[in-house]
Amino acid sequence: MVKFRKIAFLTMAAVLLSTCATGISNLSESRVGGQYTVYAAEAQADAGESVATLTDATATVKNKKGWYTKNGKTYYYDENGKALKSKFLTYKGDKYYFNRYGRMVRGLNKIQNNYYYFRTNGKALMNTWKKIKGKKYYFGSDGKAYKGAHKVKNSKYYYNFSSNGYLAEGVRKINGVTYRFGSNGKPYTGWYTTKLGNRQYYSASGVAYKGPKKVNGKLYLFDKNGALVKGRGWKYYNGKRYFVSVKGTLLTGYRYVDGAYYYFSKSGAMYRSKWAYANGYKFYFNRGGKRLTDVDKILGKQDSYEIKVNKTTNVVTVYAKDGNKGYIIPVKAFVCSGGDTTPLGTFCTPAKGRWWTLMGPCYGQWDTLITGDILFHSVYYGEEDPTTLSVSAYNMLGTTCSHGCIRLKAGDAKWIYDNCDLGTKVTIFESDKSGPFPKPTSVQLDYSHTWDPTDPTMAYKCRENGCHKGIAW
Fold it and tell me: 206 exposed, middle or buried (CB, 10 Å; 0-12, 13-18, 19+)?
């Protein structure tokens, strides 16, 4: 019994200390059996308004809730006199936590898989940074340490927090966008080389570049994982085709690549089945991206054309009109043979004929008069017969060898004859510069091949002979 009473008196003392901590003094007590009742004053004792009730085994705060500190440990009792355990307490706007023993916690604590930091007075940190053992945390409005990617205090960029709540390096996808974070938790910016040797670039906000992007004024291509695409050649990204130069940059604009002309947008994407303006002309680029050198079928028959003849290079180029921009669409080019006496200047075609007698006498098909006795006509024939072609004259196409007229393949002379109305403007000039299209070639004929393979009336003979497939038939 003596030992039992000692425990009861110790419990009584604890309650008295607790009551003093709440600012209550002048305590008194009464005992009924094994139970002690604590009063703040005699008047309360007379009225039966107790502060605490003790038994020989336990002590509970009754009617009042409040704080209790013993041996440097702080507790909080609810309105039922029970100490809070494994619970948060919000008191006068501040947040506290009491562990499973009812003790108020301090410092960094992991509670329900989240981290909190409590000051020495037990108040949780909120909306602030805190460096703990060399690691930096940010505690939000609920007191929880941020985890994952977060913007802090309206920052322009994200910070990366580990699963333990502190700033950490790593790679994260946020809303489908890849970010790399440094050891300080801030987004990595600029060039970065991975352990595998892949080069990546991160913007000022930490976003990994993907696709075509400019860095310091140079256009590069990054793959879907953010790695810089290396190596000269054709590359694909999101269904679009690009070309990486030997310097690692993307080509843009009008470019000559591996034997053909292409057009690339400002972002480096190759044009497909599209028109583009370049070097003062309007060109068409096919599905494979190559510039077409014959857009007659793309354009269809036009109301009018202009023809330019370069006497120096022996090339005829036909142009179509592009609205108020004028005749800047190269439609097609023909190899030709002019002569030393071919006149320079601008003329309008006044007449045309199916067969005309030329010098010699010899004969030309599909003739269009330019000026005076100067014509567009086929390579000459010995008779008005398409099987009497001058093979030697045909094999000299592309050289200056005529008596002044503009000699053409039969098929090209026919195109002008069929498509260019009388009054068509023809300009004959001299220049060492090449035109918008390269100079076409002409096949060399065997001397037994006395008809023009481009003559549509002679296609059957080529088919019979099994020659010039793709030209005649």
Answer: buried
Query: Which pTM value belongs to this model?
Result: 0.71
Question: Where does the pLDDT of residue 150 fall: very low under 50, low under 70, confident under 90, or very high at 90 and above?
Answer: very high
**Beta strand 345-348 with 425-429: parallel, antiparallel or unpaired?**
antiparallel
- Kindly tell me if the per-residue pLDDT of 360 is higher than 80: yes
Return the CATH number of the domain spanning residue range 293-473.
2.40.440.10
Helices (H), 365-471: 391-394, 410-419, 459-465
Per CATH, 209-274 and 293-473 having the same topology is answered: no
Rg (CA), the chain: 48
SS3 sequence, 194-242?
Answer: CCCCCEEEECCCCEECCEEEEECCEEEEECCCCCECCCCEEEEECCEEE
Q: Phi and psi for 424 in degrees, rounded to 5?
A: -65, 135
Listed in sequence order, the residues at least 6 apart from 319 whose beta carbon sits closer than 8 Å to its beta carbon are 305, 306, 307, 308, 327, 328, 329, 330, 331
How is the chain split into domains, by residue range? 2-77, 209-274, 293-473
- CATH superfamily, domain 209-274, is Cholin Binding (2.10.270.10)
